[in-house]
Amino acid sequence: MKKKTLYRQVLLSLMAGALFAGQAMAADYTGVITGDASDDAIYGSVKKNGGAPGYYFNGETTIKGNGTLINTNGNVSLYMIPPSEDKKAPLHLQSESTDSPVTAVNVTAGKGFCIKLSDLTDIKAHGVYGATGISVKSFTPASDTANHAVYVDKSKHLQIEAISGKVEGSFRPGKAVGIEVAGNSTAHIEDSLMMIKNGNWDDLKEGKWTYADATDNWGVSVEGRHGFGYFDASGILAQGYKVGQNVAAPNITTGLVFMNVNANGAFANGAGSSITMKGGAIHVNKDNTQGYAALVAESGHVRMGLTESDWVNRAKVNIDGVASRRRRTLQLLIRTA
What we know:
- It contains 3 helices and 23 strands.
- The protein is mainly β.
């Protein structure tokens, strides 16, 4: 009788093992991804150096910390692998600090940062005195043709929150940016981009727009003291170099964009910087006191509803906010129907 019971227990264990084989459990990490050997202790089991090098995460993955979560001056690729055909492999990057600014993803040189095969990537950067979801900055001359870039693969949604919190009694101003690209750098989001706190992709797929004027749903916002006027917060920011520096202009391209922000929507600031969005909807807090606008081009280019290479298949645009700004607006093309 004991042998039969033991046999059944072993058989059930083997069946359970076969049933769950290949089905990944959600995994949590707290270390910084660097793209070099310094992160081997934490990520060594998911890193691959030969073939297509990168970090291979099987199933839903969360990376948490109180500062930068991906900090690279080289080539870092994240491959999000669904455990089965009917499962998804979302990536969650969550950076939160109660005493300092935070930048969740920081790319400073090299070939940058790439996310592939991920159904959804959401980035939350909550800091004080400053919060940035993705920052790409290259301080190299225009002759440098290296691809200093962030790239998110096709059909993979990207969701970003950047909230700069306040500190009682502090006079230090804060800044908040969803995606910032500066200097000789680029960012390319192949598919949709959302900046709505607690936003739901299903709502957007069904054509709903229920987030307008919801103060607790700002995807990008500065709480507390402002010290930079309308420069202090933007969903998407292309930041050119100072006059006289021989560098290439920053460039950002995205698919559909959906924003509900207490900030500028898209801001191309200086040196021929460029932002191109396929279409979408941008809502800016109508009660803001900083002079934020939905689309801002100052010595730069902002395009929404069309691309430079596709003037026929244009997407619809919903703008709730000022559609351009003062000073040197070089080009602003909008299709609103």
